[in-house]
Specification:
By secondary structure, the chain is an alpha/beta fold. The protein is built from 16 helices and 19 strands. The chain has a 7-stranded parallel beta sheet. The protein has a 5-stranded antiparallel beta sheet with strand order 13-14-15-19-17. Strands 4-6-5 form a 3-stranded antiparallel beta sheet, with no helix packed on it. It is globular, with a radius of gyration of 23 Å. The structure holds alpha-D-glucopyranose. The site of alpha-D-glucopyranose (GLC) has 9 residues, from loops.
């Protein structure tokens, strides 16, 4: 039996790791102020260990005014005092490392917070000052902004300051874009990468990695002119080839550590250009968001897998798989909606470019059970693929998107900047339920910063821990089994004779069959190792179910 043990031993952890994304403000609240914190993560190290993940990726926990859930960073080398201290961070890191769990932190280099010391100094120093050079300030045209560009979160991308100049913000007003042509900007991020690497973090997730460098030569093009330009590496704003000069320097930093620090790019770029980010000379790995944009559909899943395995080969990296994260509608909910791209109230789910960003809406039409059943099947399919799998906190509970958040409680700038038209991303960021009771379902002792619905009780960790059929129990069994079956980064497809059933085999005899259709499918074997839903009828794989077989 070809288990490719040799190849497996050579693999660095990140190639086929399972990385669990923690959204720190909504994971666990140790000090009872309604906001999750670093000590909260430390208190759940046993939970993460029992779940069986290889690494934890923490979304930003740095000082922030929370204009964009922490992605507006005021100080890259500290912990938000509401979330703890650097000492708490060190303690958390040590506790995770003691369990063999790696730690990945989020770096947000496209923009700072407007509270960042540099931006405050830029405002104070005035037009033409060296302080303004670290950002992108321009004079307007009369009373109008320098160009008609739109921010990713809706509304204009330029904001006027008191002396009449304007600054560029591709995201929220409170997130001024940095000027990556400035040597001090470059040097400062190298210092940040060293700061966290010296503390012992294992890797970095790079936020909007495709937007740092810009060609701001004048005259500035209009929005429609920019939109019409090809994204071939020379586009003035997006996915420029010269961004890899930044990452080549970062690579030298990563490689100066033993073991080398890792990085994964969040880059929403044309597929063919993803390998540039994933290559060994650049960041080394890149997210592929194709699965989270696919419907629960065999044909779509198969081509996503095929394409991305080829792209991974082209980059020399491994592929990454993601079904849910802090920016998209949770997959249990996506799969339980009658029209995959519609909210239950009939509104289309809005996207930024190719990104899902909307959430919410009352949900009379949401079929929760179907959504969860499909989510379990999709997860079991994903976890068997060659490459790394990224999980988002709460998906292991089968959690749904929280649709019923009152406008007054919403936090996401996309909601406000679209005048409430886009529900935003709060629905997947609601604090986790740890117990079926208490003021915040065990999240903390004094409420939760986003309101938790009553139905969270059914999904509480303690409830699911006591139920061997729960989604949590499935994730635990699957992750343990995955560890024992993990093998070379290859798969081969097996013919099924049906368009709605996928069957693949990994080296060593790990076989996976998913029935995306409505009709049961005859099982090829009768020794299932794990199934995403009960195999009620002997010899048949029911609808919306994945099964693994472990050896020939
Ligand atoms: C990334 C993050 C998202 C954030 C944006 C701006 O897309 O995932 O949450 O709002 O960057 O930093």
């Amino acid at each position: 039996m070809d288990k490719n043990v040799g190849e497996e031993q050579e693999q660095p952890w990140w190639r086929q790791g399972v990385v669990y994304q923690v959204y720190p403000r909504s994971f666990a609240d140790a000090n009872g102020d309604g906001l999750g914190d670093i000590a909260g993560v430390t208190s759940k190290v046993g939970y993460l260990d029992a779940l069986g993940v290889d690494a934890v990726w923490l979304s930003p926990f740095y000082p922030s005014e929370l204009a964009d859930g922490g992605y507006d960073v005021a100080d890259y080398r500290d912990v938000d005092p509401r979330l703890g201290t650097l000492a708490d961070f060190d303690q958390m890191l040590a506790a995770l490392h003691a369990r063999g769990i790696k730690v990945v932190v989020d770096i947000v280099p496209n923009h700072t917070s407007d509270r960042h010391e540099w931006f405050q100094r830029a405002l104070a120093a005035g037009r033409g000052s060296p302080e303004r050079e670290r950002y992108i300030f321009r004079d307007g045209v009369g009373d109008q902004p320098p160009a008609d560009w739109e921010s990713m979160f809706g509304g204009p991308a330029w904001q006027r300051v008191s002396d009449g100049q304007w600054y560029l913000h591709n995201f929220a007003v409170e997130q001024p874009d940095l000027n990556w042509s400035h040597p001090e900007v470059r040097a400062d991020f190298v210092a940040t990468l060293r700061f966290w690497s010296d503390r012992g973090v294992d890797g970095f997730r790079i936020d909007v990695a495709h937007m740092l460098t810009k060609d701001m030569s004048e005259p500035l093009l209009s929005r429609s002119e920019l939109d019409a330009l090809p994204r071939d590496g020379l586009h003035p704003m997006i996915d420029r080839d010269d961004v890899h000069e930044v990452y080549a320097e970062w690579r030298r930093v990563f490689d100066s550590y033993d073991p080398p620090r890792t990085a994964v790019a969040e880059a929403w770029v044309d597929k063919a250009r993803v390998p540039l980010y994933a290559s060994r000379d650049s960041l080394g790995q890149a997210f592929n968001f194709d699965l989270l944009q696919a419907d629960f559909d065999a044909g779509q899943f198969r081509s996503v897998v095929q394409d991305n395995l080829e792209l991974a080969r082209a980059s020399g990296s491994s592929s990454t798989w993601v079904l849910s994260n802090h920016d998209v509608v949770r997959h249990a909910t996506r799969y339980g909606l009658p029209h995959p791209e519609r909210l239950p109230n009939g509104d289309p789910v809005r996207k930024h470019g190719t990104e899902w960003v909307a959430s919410g809406g009352v949900s009379p039409e949401l079929d929760r059970a179907l959504g969860e059943r499909r989510a379990r099947a999709a997860t079991l399919f994903m976890l068997a693929l060659p490459g790394a799998s990224y999980l988002y906190q709460g998906e292991e509970l089968g959690l749904h998107e929280v649709a019923e958040i009152d406008a007054s409680a919403r936090q996401d700038p996309t909601f406000f900047r679209s005048g409430g038209e886009d529900f935003g991303r709060d629905g997947c960021r609601v604090p986790l339920p740890w117990r079926p009771d208490g003021t915040s379902f065990g999240f903390g002792t004094d409420g939760a910063h986003l309101p938790q619905p009553a139905w969270f009780a059914d999904y509480a960790v303690s409830v699911e821990e006591a139920d061997p059929r729960s989604t949590l129990a499935l994730y635990r069994r699957a992750l343990a089994l995955r560890r024992s079956l993990q093998t070379a980064e290859r798969l081969e497809w097996v013919q099924t004779g049906r368009d709605d059933v996928l069957h693949f085999r990994r080296p060593g005899g790990w076989e996976v069959v998913t029935n995306f259709g409505a009709e049961p499918y005859p099982l090829p074997r009768n020794d299932a190792a794990i199934a995403s839903s009960p195999l009620d009828e002997a010899g048949l794989l029911p609808r919306d179910t994945t099964v693994w077989f472990s050896a020939v």
